[in-house]
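User: Show me a protein chain along with its predicted structure.
Assistant: Here is one chain, sequence first, then C-alpha cells.
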Amino acid sequence: MERERNKILVAVDGSERTHELIDYLSGVIPAQETELVLFHVMGKVPESFWDWEKDPLTPRHLDHLRDWETGREKQVRDLMRQVRQQFANIGMPEYSIMISIQKVKEGVSRDLLVEAQRGYDAVLMGRRGLGAGEQLLGSTAAKLAAKLGPVNLWLVGGTPRHGRIMIAMDSSEPAMRAVSHVAKMINTSNHAIALVHIVRGIAVASAGREMNFPEEYRQRLLEEAENQIRPAFDRAIAILVEAGIKREKIATKVISGVASRAGALFDEAVREGYGTIVVGRKGLSNVDEFDMGRVTAKLVQLAGGIALWVVG
C-alpha cells in the first residue's frame, strides 16, 4: 500500500551548517514519499547598520544596503538550489521541493512559528541559527519547542549518525504518538529502532546504599518495571512492524536507578550509537508526571551531536 506523502518544513539559516542539516535529513526520509519546503527568513538590514539613520551620510549608504539585500538573497537562493540538487541526487523529485524566502516581519523565530502552523508533519531546524542574526541556543530551542504546541520539531546539531533511532517510552499516549510519528516519517528499509523506558530512582551504588537496597530488591523493581511497560512495548512494536520495519531491527530496554531521565537517554544513545532521540511532548511514568518540558530542555543542552525529535 502506498504511503501518504509527508510534508516537512526545513528552516534554512543560509549558513554552511545547512549542508549538515540536509545530510541528516537525506538519510532519514523516504525520498519518494516526502515533500519539503525550504524556508528562510531574511532580515532587511544587518545589525551593524541599525544606527545609520542617525548618520548624516545615510543617503550615501542606501545603495550599499540595497546591494547587500540583493547579494544576500542571491546567496541564500544559490544555497537553496544546491540543497534541492542534493535531494534530487537521492531520488526526490524536484517538484517535491519548494523554496520560500521571505522578508522578516515580526522576528525570525515568530515568523517561523507562524509558518510552522500551516499543516506540516515536522519542522526541521539546527540547534543554532535561523538567520537574520538570531541564534537558537539550548534554552531558546526548548522554549520554541514548547510554543510549537502540536507541531513536531526535529532539532539537529552537528552530524548525527544515520540509521539508528531511540524512542523514549512510557505507557502514555504521547509516547505512542512518538512511535507512530517515527513509523510514518522514516525510510523504514534502513533504520534500527530502540524502545527505551527509563525508571528514575536512587543510584544506590553511587550513593553508598547497597545495604539498604540489596541487589535482590533492585532486581525485583526492574522486573516489575519491565512487566508494566511490556504492553506498551508490544503495542509500539506492532506499529513499527506494520509500517515496514523488520522485527529483528527493533530492540527494547528498561533502564532503572537513574537520577536523570534525560541524562540516561543521552548516555544510552551515545553508548549504543543512536543518532536520533525521539520524545513525546509529555507523558506519564509509572511514578509521577513525565514532564517532557524539563526532559527536552536538558536533552537540548546535552545532545549537541544527536538529533532530537519532540513529538506533539
